[in-house]
């Protein structure tokens, strides 16, 4: 018996990395899996190839599971609808969507082209919209469904050279939160997963010094895609039906739940604010509560377990 027995699950980006490991684990846990992967490069600048998705589907079937491959792009609504229709036509239903599909086009913001901005937003943020919008009415009608959408510490904390990626990933956080709020009464839930693992995309990050090289080697050894998959699979299981609207992350063998934006301090002026007394009163009062500009390495100061 598996935690996903009887479930039909769509996994986007399921041909490689985190998506592949998630698709394989979902199948081992009893799900019938729609494995989606465009088969493109990490930058998304080629036509793609359904081969990786088919290979994963074949691996699932060879192990005794059930799977079907799809090579459509999450960046297109027509592609998302095709994935949903494939699930319905092949298995007669859909119960969950796990959506790690993504690309990177890293560059400093002052050098970023509109094309590089649009490409990353289209795959990550628009792609998350597409797969949720294509399936939400089905989930609402059956009063059962679960989304696991993917953010990143690049959005939650920040990372130099990734303004497009960070903006998309924080947009997905807002998307998931409101989907969860709007659909709670219909038993449709949506959660966010922030993975830390070595993948093809991480491998594109330039290694400019020995310290970076050591961090990369540590990431390869201790933060693997197969360690991310259990969290994604667990979040679409029936035993997680009380979890919605949350942000989770996994880092090696460490699992975290994150806080979400809430006011941390307030100050009032009954006579009203001016720029001058903002500068002299409000801002000094807030300085003890400012968030620094550190990245994930300053937030997670220890090596992963």
Care to describe what's here?
- By secondary structure, the chain is an alpha/beta fold.
- The protein has one domain (8-257): NAD(P)-binding Rossmann-like Domain (Rossmann fold, 3-Layer(aba) Sandwich), CATH 3.40.50.720.
- The protein contains ten helices and eight strands.
- It has helices at residues 17-28, 51-62, 77-91, 114-142, 153-156, 163-183, 210-222, 225-235, 275-286, 296-299, and strands at residues 8-11, 32-36, 66-70, 96-99, 145-150, 188-196, 247-251, 254-257.
- It has an eight-stranded mixed beta sheet, with helices on both faces.
- Helix 1 (17-28) packs across helix 8.
- The two termini are 29 Å apart.
What key phrases describe this protein's structure?
8 strands, eight-stranded mixed sheet, Rossmann fold, 305 residues, 10 helices, alpha/beta
Fold topology:
Blueprint: E1 8-11, H1 17-28, E2 32-36, H2 51-62, E3 66-70, H3 77-91, E4 96-99, H4 114-142, E5 145-150, H5 153-156, H6 163-183, E6 188-196, H7 210-222, H8 225-235, E7 247-251, E8 254-257, H9 275-286, H10 296-299
Parallel strand pairs: 1-2, 1-4, 2-3, 4-5, 5-6, 6-7
Antiparallel strand pairs: 7-8
Helix pairs in contact: 1-2, 1-8, 3-4, 4-6
Describe what is shown at a glance.
The chain has 305 residues and is α/β, with parallel strands linked by helices. The protein has one domain: 3-Layer(aba) Sandwich (Rossmann fold), CATH 3.40.50.
Query: How are the strands of the biggest sheet laid out side by side?
Result: 3-2-1-4-5-6-7-8
Our estimate of the beta-strand percent is 5-15%
User: What do we call the CATH homologous superfamily?
Assistant: NAD(P)-binding Rossmann-like Domain
CATH topology tier name: Rossmann fold
Decide which structural class fits the backbone: alpha/beta
What's the total number of strands?
8
Q: Which sequence of SSEs, written as H and E, runs from N to C?
A: EHEHEHEHEHHEHHEEHH
Note poorly predicted spans. Answer: none
| Domain unit count | 1
Largest sheet: 8 strands, mixed
- State the CATH class: Alpha Beta
